[in-house]
Amino acid sequence: MNKPPVKSVLLLGAALLTLSACASARVEPPVPAPVSRTDSEKWRDQIKVDGRADEIQLAVHATGVSANQDQALSALVSRWLSAQAREIVVSAPVGGGDAAGGMAVQVRERLVFYGAAPGQVRVVGYDAIGLDRAPLRVGFEIFTAEGPTCGRWENLTATRKNEAYGNFGCAVAANLAAQIANPEDLIRPRDSTPIDAGRRDTVVGKYRKGEVTSSAKDDQANGAISKAIN
Length: 230
Prior knowledge:
This protein has helices spanning 6-24, 67-83, 98-113, 170-179, 197-209; strands at residues 48-58, 88-94, 121-127, 136-146. The protein is an alpha+beta fold. The protein has a 4-stranded mixed sheet with strand order 1-4-2-3, covered by helices on one side. The longest helix is centred in the first third of the chain and has 19 residues, at 6-24.
């Protein structure tokens, strides 16, 4: 039996190595091409959103929250509701004694009483070493939006290039910044609202009994057509 030439054996080995390398190589997924932004969407990037703290400081009293402090907390909750902010933070001085901790709990109760959701009021501690009569700090973060400056108008009839004029979309972005209820929505989405546990238990209970789970219809939900009055 004739042996294959050495050169053929080497070529066959090289081919097998190449095939094994191709089989073991990791195939990277294709990178999607960036989506081009329209002329009007580019103006949204020029909306400036700034955050600042709306905070009040309360002196620590052994007797708890005073009448003036109670009014200040009520006003703070009103501003919090108007701003649609995320949470109110009660910062108590660490090392302030039992009076500071007890008053922090009382402040949280007053905030909830005036309309703040219990899950959106958080009590934390801050380092008060070296501070004489360190106060309680109560506040939340509020955001403001500032739109772009418009007015660079050019000849709008010059459409030979079929391109949008330089100021196209600026007014839309400026109106968005001026009218948005909560500028924080331009930074990140809001948290989902908590579920209605009571309603869920009612629906699940009816489902287990084989009853209708939808709400009962009232007289205003019927589709009867009323007769015209002559």
